[in-house]
Amino acid sequence: MTWWQNNQLRLIQNNLRETDANLDVDLLIRDLQEFNANVLMMNAGGIVAFYPSTLEYQYISSSLEKDLLAETVSKVHEAGMRFIARFDFSKAHESIYAKRPEWFYRTKAGEAVNYHGIMHTCLNSYYQQEYSLIMIDEVLSKYPVDGVFFNMFGYKTQDYSGREYGLCYCDNCSKRFKDMFSLELPEQANDSDPNYASYKQFQEITTRDMLDVIHAFVKAKNPDVAISTYHHHKVDIIRKESNTALSRSHPVWPYSASENVMSVENSWNDKLVSNCSINAIDLQYRFTGVSKYESQIRLYENIAAGSGLDFCIIGQFADYTDRGNFESVQEVFRFHRDNEQYYGNLRPMSDVVLIKPNGFNRSASREYLGVFKMLKEQHVVFTVVEQDAFDEDSNGINSDTLRGVQAIIIPGPLTMEPSQIDLLAQLREAGVHLIATGRALYGNADELKRLFGVKYEGILELTDAAYVQIDDRHLFPSFPERDWLVVSGKFGYMSYDQSSKGSFQTHLPFIAPSTFGPPERAFGHQPTLYAGVGILDYEDGGGKALYYPWSIGELYYKHGFEDHKFVLTDVLSEIIPLHLETNAPPSVELFLDQLPDGSTMLQFINLSGFNGVSYHKPLPIRDIHVLMHGLKKPIEAKLLHSGKSVDLRIDESGDVSLTLEMLEQYESIVLHS
After folding, report:
1. What b-and-e string marks burial along 415-451, b requiring 16 or more CB atoms within 10 Å of the CB?
2. Are 367 and 411 in contact (CB under 8 A)?
3. What are the strands, taking DSSP E only, across 214-358?
4. Beta carbons of 86 and 149 less than 8 angstroms apart
5. Looking only at Cα atoms, what is the longest distance across the chain?
């Protein structure tokens, strides 16, 4: 078993500045011990080397007076910690450009990008394809590092000020793209360009090819060196980030760490995820941290969702200008150290699998995030599987991912691979319900008919003043007094294939747009034959297939109207019995997992301090009642924070209930069997 596979990392990343090359390593080690860290990630080479490199094209820190890398690796190991060497080959010093300009990125006008003396390189250049391996080899040969991490891997077209420069038009890219696709590079990064779809494939293929090369090279040198970057291909640790940016559009996303971890943890069975809580509020403002309550939420979400801990600052702790987060971060790291035996090998007791669409389509991504938020707020226990991993013939889908799952939600991907469609069909035949939202599979007409029995007659683009009507208050109990729900964005006109082997129900009839102003003209809305949801009940006794031809998830993500949540969660509660029932408010995030010994862990995170843009101290929440179905009969229940016992009630059916008397920021209850 390799050192990282226990999935109990408590990682600190010190992103060194060139001026940190002679830092006090002993002081750094003491700081790391204050955090109870067991892994240090620190700069090794690439943009700047923090060791006396002998390579011609490896720029060495102008401040270096000692072998910082050697001293740090040695003392980290003496302290019982692991060391991950950080590389960044996406850029190089301008002195290297002066010697080898052919290794660097070029705009369409043929210009290089020079950002304060650091210049963008190209993935397809000799620098990244060949010379990066020489740089990695020098470090692995001289220093016994435990892992390698590659920052900014792949195609990067923006500088650190956010300026966009477009695709790389260097000779290397032009030739390789033409050799692969017999095409010229696209004129612009836009789906309207006929060559852009091929270029996106080119980016993915060449990125994976380079990761294949790196994996083979590193593992040949030492198979016990962990490989990490932000891509999932041929890596051991997928890195994610929970971060903020002043220019980022709203809404602010409070589930950043949960979503980052959940989207990886149950997608691949040969990798783990390390989600980094970035302390800085933005790249431009690296010396001021986010709210300590936001940092704690991220870190607790990390471990609750199945990962370890990961925290990053710029430079060293000794002269960092904002120490406000340190104590609160240390608190979480200390809690994990004291209770690590319970973490890192959690199996969610999921009722639902939520498929995360590939990231090319912004609307599908928002649809996914909106559905994620719905399920979290309604305390539905669910698992996320990335679309690329949803394939039983790939290395994806953790073996436990689909165990006990009652429904799969497909939020908005326009197309899926045939093997993925086949897997969905098999699961439905086995009794799993399929739910599609946001005009999912619009680009797969045959598969849409096969799975859901529906066909698009058209899409209404302008839906101002359109609605759907509540037509069944038993199916939609959250609407006792509301008759019409707002429709905004595209709405699909669906017909239903009468040859399908099953019976159809349609609900939420579409109310066509009409005049809405002035007030005297706000009338004339008429119901149509089209529906806001179609339900196919197959004759074979398998699962149902539900189809929503409008973007209820995206609407909820953007606007937060609970109507759009309830049109999904009401139906979900009707068709499947859920593992968990609770009176917890939507601001409490819940996790229900089985531990390796058969015990159960119930976790609570209090998000009540989040007001939409700011993170404050959460409000204490009292007397949270939880009723759980289908558990192995527990003998006792204990709070991990206090060690106190919790009273359990087990009824004749075996259902287990308990009450958490007080929730501050985070609590975990282990139900020992």
Report:
1. bbbeebbbbbbebbeeebbbbbbbbbbbebeebbbbb
2. yes
3. 226-229, 237-242, 272-278, 280-282, 285-289, 309-314, 347-348, 352-356
4. yes
5. 81
Cα(602)–Cα(342) distance, rounded to whole angstroms? Answer: 11
Q: Which residues pair with 602 in a beta bridge?
A: 592, 669
- The three-class DSSP label of residue 214 is helix
3-state DSSP helix/strand/coil percent for the chain, to nearest 5?
Answer: 30, 30, 45
Between CA 365 and CA 220 the distance in angstroms is: 38
In this structure, what token pair is assigned to residue 164?
Answer: 């966009």
Please name the residue that has the structure tokens 């009652």: 406
d(CA 307, CA 258): 9
Measured in degrees and rounded to the nearest 5, phi and psi for residue 292 equal: -60, -25
Show Cβ contacts of residue 643 under 8 Å, excluding neighbours closer than 6 positions. Answer: none
Burial class, 480, CB count within 10 angstroms (exposed 0-12 / middle 13-18 / buried 19+): exposed
**135 SS3 class:** helix
Strands 433-437 and 545-547, bridge-based pairing: parallel
Q: What's the pLDDT tens digit per position in 281-327?
A: 999 999 999 999 999 999 999 999 999 999 999 999 999 999 999 99
Interval 73-123: pLDDT, tens: 999 999 999 999 999 999 999 999 999 999 999 999 999 999 999 999 999
User: 372 and 357 in contact (C-beta within 8 Å)?
Assistant: no
On whether the pTM is more than 0.70, the answer is yes
Give the pLDDT confidence of 348-406 residue by residue, as tens digits.
999 999 999 987 678 899 999 999 999 999 999 999 999 999 976 555 565 567 878 99
